[in-house]
Design brief:
Blueprint: H1 12-38, H2 45-52, H3 56-62, H4 66-91, H5 96-112, H6 119-126, H7 131-158, H8 168-186, H9 201-216
Length: 227
């Protein structure tokens, strides 16, 4: 009597397919963790593959080099967040002051509170040794980030909420740099201090924007006949 061939491989196919589809994200997560922990130069491809639970050959199927892997990490964690910020600015209906709080809050939630916050220290410490990566970071993060914030500020000028003489780029830097400092502090001296920069980054960000707004809000137009 002949037996019916077992079809035990069929249920495993969807599982293997899901695993394959998830693999790029697993590699990006492993690379981000190791780059932040050890630095770019000190991280080996073998380390990333081992952390992700795959062979080095499998990793190279998705990312041809360590440099391309870091670029993908930056695109996924920072470039995508900036693109999402563009959508927020384009569709927001409230005041520009409210929009500044929303953009900063979303950025901190998606970057500052995650392992992606370590990318800034990584770039700061490694850029001089890897100029191609520095240029990539400039094109993928710095320039789009500046455009996003200057566009946000221009919105406030156009709506009469901010001074028409506002220097957009300098103000954009004033908006961005304290947020970056929070991330640098978090991944450098912060864990070593009893009294860190702040124990409530969200409160710090809200206060920072409030201070910034008092310097950019348009003065009310005096009523006729008043001095």
């Amino acid at each position: 009597m002949s037996s019916i061939p077992s079809d035990s491989s069929t249920p495993a196919e969807p599982s293997r397919r899901r695993r394959k589809e998830a693999r790029p994200q697993e590699l990006l997560d492993a690379a981000l963790d190791l780059f932040v922990e050890k630095g770019f130069a000190a991280t080996k491809i073998d380390d990333v593959a081992a952390r992700a639970g795959v062979s080095k050959g499998t990793l190279y199927l998705y990312f041809p080099s360590k440099e391309e892997l870091l670029k993908a990490v930056i695109r996924h964690n920072l470039s995508l967040t900036i693109e999402q910020g563009d959508d927020v600015v384009a569709n927001f209906e409230g005041s520009t002051a409210e929009l500044m709080q929303v953009v900063a809050g979303v950025w901190w939630e998606r970057v500052g509170e995650t392992q992606a916050s370590g990318i800034f220290k990584l770039i700061l410490t490694e850029a001089r040794n890897f100029p191609d990566l520095a240029q990539f970071y400039d094109a993928e993060v710095i320039e789009p980030g500046q455009r996003l914030i200057t566009r946000l500020l221009q919105r406030g000028v156009d709506r009469g909420e901010f001074r028409p003489t506002l220097h957009l780029l300098d103000t954009a830097h004033s908006f961005i740099f304290p947020l970056l400092m929070l991330c640098l502090h978090k991944h450098s001296i912060g864990p070593c201090l009893v009294h860190g920069l702040t124990n409530d980054p969200r409160r710090f960000i809200a206060h920072h924007i409030e201070l910034l707004l008092k310097g950019v809000t348009a003065e009310p137009v005096p009523a006729p006949g008043t001095s």
